[in-house]
Amino acid sequence: MDKANVKQMIRNEIVSSLLKTQKFLIVGNWKMNQTKHEVMSFLDAIVDYDFGNKNKLVIVPSNPYLYLFEDKLRYSKILYGVQNVFPKNEGAFTGELSIQMTKDFGCKYAILGHSERRTLFNECDEFVSKKVRMCVQNQIIPILCIGENLEDRKNGNYKKFLTNQIKEGLSRISGEELKEVVIAYEPIWEIGTGETELPDQVEEINMFLRKFIIKEYGNDKGKNITLTYGGSVKPSNVGELALAQDVSGFLIGGASLESKTFKDISDILNGN
Ligand code: 13P
Predict the structure, then answer these.
(1) Closest CA to 131 of 89, 72, 192
(2) CB-based burial of residue 46 (10 Å sphere; 0-12 exposed, 13-18 middle, 19+ buried)?
């Protein structure tokens, strides 16, 4: 075996032993994908799979299939959630989903302020912050998405942009409630492109974001907040990305749609 192979083997060993102990939140955002048949096959393929006890797994399907999740995952450790909620209890809001409806189906998480909702449906920080409030008040964990576009990234404004999104998104919750929130950093220009930032770049931004949260909300709260990364995460890059400092989980789109890749990602993050 040549030196390069030996080095790689040693590196793989180190990576897997590190991943064996670190805890991750793994969230599959299915967006507007999957048919009823595909959802059922996916759930059949994962319901008895050994995902281990270390990481937390969450799948976020389209709303019509939540009843299948409630039924199939009744005795499973895998959690599930919704891709959006409306910040009012009930009323004349055609096409919207109330927090009670998500609770009726056993949801535990809600993705809020995803860049696709911000750009395609003009959701602003103020509106997103009301949804964050609604979730926290109702024991649904909000996954507050933030992320800059390519223009902001290139002109260097992205850090200010991201910290504003965090500040505004969290403006209706107290420091105490921060432990009930997940912040998901997803650079818009990497979503669905197959491209991801280098682990070093992810590390730099996540460290920056955590430092900012610590400064704003105090050491305890900032240190413990779950800060995930998303944007073309897949089995081939998740191991390296997981080594990045201050990344405590992943929000995964395309690669979460197949049960095989979802299981592969879980296996890698278990250090297997
Ligand atoms: P992809 O993993 O398909 O890039 O999607 C990321 C995402 O938007 C998850 O919310």
Answers:
(1) 89
(2) buried
Q: How far apart are CA 42 and CA 101, in angstroms?
A: 23
- Flag whether 29 is in a domain: yes
What's the mean per-residue pLDDT of the chain? Answer: 94
Between the alpha carbon of residue 110 and those of residues 36, 90, 184, the distances in Å are: 21, 17, 12
* Residue 234 is assigned to a structural domain of this protein: yes
Q: What is the CATH number of the domain that holds 135?
A: 3.20.20.70
Q: Is residue 12 part of a domain?
A: no
Which residue intervals of the chain are DSSP H helices?
A: 3-21, 36-46, 66-72, 99-104, 115-120, 125-137, 150-154, 158-169, 199-217, 219-224, 235-242, 259-269
Q: Flag whether pLDDT at 6 surpasses 80.
A: yes
Between the CA of 231 and the centroid of ligand 1 the distance, in Å, is 5
Q: Is residue 6 part of a domain?
A: no
Closest ligand 1 atom, residue 116 Cα: 8
DSSP-based three-state secondary structure for 184: strand
Q: Is the CB of 237 under 6 A from ligand 1?
A: no
**What's the number of CA atoms in the CB half-sphere (13 Å) around residue 223?**
3
Q: What is the pLDDT of residue 14?
A: 82
Considering the entire predicted model, what is its pTM?
0.94
- What is the domain range of residue 97? 24-269
Question: For this structure, is 240 an active site residue?
Answer: no
Asked if residues 225 and 210 have their Cβ atoms less than 8 Å apart, the reply is yes
Residue from 31, 59, 149, 189 to probe ligand 1 pocket by mutation (most atoms less than 8 Å from CB) = 31
Cβ pair 252, 29 in contact under 8 A: yes
User: What is the total count of domains within the chain?
Assistant: 1
